[in-house]
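Input structure tokens:
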């Protein structure tokens, strides 16, 4: 047996494998670096260069992040059914490079620079329509780029180990996922430290030129590494089969399914043994039920043509896909609370950002570094160090299922919002004491007070995001690997839309009758602490909903073998 395993190892093709992983990780890692760097400071860029209000700038950021999160679901479908993952990623990298180039040009070309008063006639406070078109076009190309890179990178990495089998494949995939999680945190760390520092220290021209250089380089590397990749052809039938099951089940809605399995036959793949579908969502079982009519001599199957019958495997794939929707919907609020932390940059901009007694000043956009470090440490050390240590001191095996990880992530998101509310209330109180309620100025309060809520946000990602990825990959059909990450980004997109609506509603309701709303441009004049508390309250309600969903969720069985007597 050992010799056979060695032969299988030798026969593995020269393409794919571990040699491709650095390039694949670099594709999404660079996208994350650039996206995080832009998102971290774009509010400041819009408020100072385009003279937008803080709430308006936040809405622009929400809209961009929503588009970058919604479109990956389309990218997953296009990748899995039409273009394949390599071509989708390649085109997306080109789109992302164009987006960064346009954003850089808004700082370089005089006619594109908002607030350029060189001609003496243009208002410094009102960007022209053309300038806004170029700005928003850059966001559009960045969103299109994200739509192809985000859902496909990890699935493309899994494709590289398709020839592997057994324990060898399990070990390779474990390494891949570990590096993927580390890259998630590492890319954000680089962006909010180095790139944000460059933006803050050397200005927007250098700050946006570096992301452009990064994306141009990784786009070239992806093409150079093309001969090394295993390029799995798209399977057009994967998504079509899901809709076929739904169509056939509706078509056969008049058929009654017997409670007992005696005498009931289901259509299944000939390569498999006799199978029955699971009892969950029994209505869908009508799609694979074989209808028969009997005479004196024999029993004849009369709906076995492909157009009117599905296999048990097809039915179970659709059930698996539908089963994730309740849990997925419960994680939207977790992403909502994370998005609500975008005002943290504006808070840091009003606070003392010096480190101790040194002259070094933390850029406002880099305050999230505590979130990133927390995520990197926990996700990178969880399986290798933390779990073995806990098992050693407790003397028992400790296993956190993806569902439990998501629940823990939700609790940390609530803690993050509550902490943010308390810190903002204290910051505002200090600002009023200094007479800054109606004026701008630096509050005599260290920006490091924002670290605790950032740490809770990092814990939210380390448990919630990682738990989601593991959950989707375990439950969804293997032929729909790109959908796994696309679902997580879709939840983020919906959270951005929800955050936009909440901001608008809060401003409208609390600003009635000429009163100052909770979210004015001047943070000291408003009540952003109330906004954070509102998010925490929504998180508590959502956690109760998650508990109900997890209680009723059953781990889907891909196949249920029949026990014929």
């Amino acid at each position: 047996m050992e010799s056979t395993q060695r032969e299988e190892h030798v026969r593995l093709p020269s393409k794919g494998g571990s040699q491709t992983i650095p390039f694949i990780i670099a594709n999404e890692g660079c996208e994350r670096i650039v996206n995080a760097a832009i998102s971290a400071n774009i509010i400041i860029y819009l408020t100072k260069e385009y003279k937008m209000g803080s709430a308006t700038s936040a809405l622009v950021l929400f809209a961009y992040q929503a588009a970058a999160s919604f479109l990956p679901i389309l990218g997953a479908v296009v990748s899995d059914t039409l273009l394949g993952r390599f071509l989708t990623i390649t085109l997306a990298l080109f789109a992302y490079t164009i987006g960064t180039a346009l954003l850089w040009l808004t700082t370089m070309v005089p006619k594109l620079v908002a607030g350029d008063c060189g001609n003496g006639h243009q208002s410094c406070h009102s960007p022209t329509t053309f300038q806004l078109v170029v700005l928003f076009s850059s966001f559009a190309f960045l969103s299109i780029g994200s739509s192809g890179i985000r859902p496909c990178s990890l699935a493309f990495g899994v494709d590289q180990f398709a020839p592997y089998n057994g324990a060898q494949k399990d070990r390779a995939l474990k390494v891949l996922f570990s590096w993927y999680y580390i890259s998630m945190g590492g890319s954000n760390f680089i962006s909010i430290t180095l790139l944000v520092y460059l933006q803050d220290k050397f200005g927007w021209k250098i700050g946006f030129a570096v992301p452009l250089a990064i994306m141009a380089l990784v786009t070239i590397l992806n093409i150079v590494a093309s001969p090394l990749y295993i390029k799995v052809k798209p399977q057009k039938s994967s998504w079509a089969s899901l809709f076929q099951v739904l169509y056939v089940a509706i078509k056969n809605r008049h058929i009654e399914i017997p409670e007992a399995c005696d005498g009931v036959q289901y259509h299944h793949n000939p390569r498999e043994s006799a199978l029955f579908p699971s009892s969950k969502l029994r209505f869908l079982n009508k799609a694979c039920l074989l209808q028969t009519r009997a005479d004196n001599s024999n029993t004849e199957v009369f709906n076995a043509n492909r157009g009117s019958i599905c296999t048990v495997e097809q039915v179970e794939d659709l059930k698996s896909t539908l089963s994730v929707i309740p849990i997925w919907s419960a994680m939207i609020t977790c992403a909502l609370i994370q998005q609500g932390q975008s005002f943290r940059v504006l808070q840091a901009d009003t606070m003392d950002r010096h480190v101790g007694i040194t002259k070094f000043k933390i850029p406002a956009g880099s305050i999230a570094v505590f979130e990133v470090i927390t995520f990197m440490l926990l996700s990178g050390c969880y399986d290798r160090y933390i779990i073995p240590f806990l098992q050693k001191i407790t003397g028992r095996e400790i296993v956190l299922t993806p569902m439990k990880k998501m629940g823990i992530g939700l609790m940390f998101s609530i803690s993050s919002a509550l902490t943010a509310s308390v810190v903002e209330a204290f910051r505002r109180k200090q600002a009023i004491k200094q007479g800054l309620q109606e004026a701008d100025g630096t509050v005599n309060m260290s920006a490091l007070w924002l670290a605790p809520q950032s740490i809770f946000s990092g814990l939210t990602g380390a448990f919630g995001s990682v738990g989601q990825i593991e959950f989707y990959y375990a439950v969804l059909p293997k032929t729909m690997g790109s959908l796994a990450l696309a679902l997580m980004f879709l939840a983020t997109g919906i959270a951005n839309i929800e955050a936009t609506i909440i901001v608008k509603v809060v401003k409208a309701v609390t600003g009635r009758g000429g009163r100052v709303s909770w979210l004015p441009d001047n943070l000291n004049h408003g009540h952003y602490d109330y906004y954070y508390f509102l998010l925490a309250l929504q998180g508590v309600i959502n956690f109760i909903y998650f508990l109900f969903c997890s209680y009723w969720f059953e781990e889907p069985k891909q196949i249920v073998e029949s026990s014929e007597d």
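The chain has a mean pLDDT of 80. The chain has three domains: 13-115+126-236, 238-310, 314-554.
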